[in-house]
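Dear colleagues,

For the upcoming journal club I promised to circulate an example of a predicted protein-ligand complex. I picked one with cytidine-5'-triphosphate because it came up in last month's discussion. The inputs are reproduced below in full, followed by the predicted structure.
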Amino acid sequence: MSDDSLPAPPPVRAAAVIPAAGRGVRLGPGAPKALRTLGGTPMLIHAVRALAASRAVSLVVVVAPPDGAAEVKSLLDAHALPDRTDFVVVPGGETRQESVKLGLDALPPGHDIVLVHDAARPLVPVDTVDAVIEAVREGAPAVVPALPLADTVKEVEPAAVPGGPEPVVATPERARLRAVQTPQGFDRATLVRAHETVTDEVTDDAGMVERLGLTVVVVPGHEEAFKVTRPLDLVLAEAVLARRRLNDGF
Ligand SMILES: Nc1ccn([C@@H]2O[C@H](COP(=O)(O)OP(=O)(O)OP(=O)(O)O)[C@@H](O)[C@H]2O)c(=O)n1
Ligand SMILES: C[C@](O)(CO)[C@H](O)COP(=O)(O)O
């Protein structure tokens, strides 16, 4: 039962940082990965639309390839995006971690929740974005969407020579493992502290928060939030998009 005498809670104001400065070496030769097209539209635009589809996201900071900021600004201008969302474009760095930090540095005051989302995950559903935001709003300092694994995972001793045999050192219990996706969501002050404190390279932002000794919580991810990394991922992404367009009737 709602109590009309209570003041309404303040609206959620989340900002999204989208690192899009990677080259896409594993995808093969071509334009920077985020600028390659999916269903005729740059992957980055799909990712921006996916985040801006959440009514809580009022600002999107795109971290562009280092010499591609002007091109990214033109792309954002050329594609229909929600009016209620502001966009900022900054050039990125050498690593994903550096690029995210540059995006965080460009955030104006006024957003207490920050999402970090790979441009390389263009098809994340808005329900996943909203679930991450909601878990941060409820008090978690860091939230990751994740899925159980289909494969058994082995920990190995890296090969002594390239292509050489890799002895297995352990088989972690699969039921306790999760494959982590984005958007990852954070209380802003926590994420800023992590990026100011952690100096060694970590492959995701939540991992940096773990190094501060804070708890990161997992919410259900989505199979369509996969990362376009290798050529076969692009085939899958085209198929998912075609299925969506068929279902939506356009
Ligand atoms: N210097 C970098 C490297 C990566 N990214 C971004 O981080 C996300 C996840 O990285 P990944 O999938 O590894 O992209 P790439 O680095 O482009 O891929 P690769 O390692 O195959 O070159 C991508 O949206 C990518 O654009 C970034 O902003 N800045
Ligand atoms: C952040 C991430 O997408 C979570 O799975 C992943 O760690 C990025 O790794 P990459 O090697 O930089 O693509």
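Two points we might discuss: DSSP finds seven helices and twelve strands in the chain. Helices lie at 43-52, 69-78, 96-105, 126-137, 188-197, 205-211, 231-248.

See you all on Thursday,
B. R.
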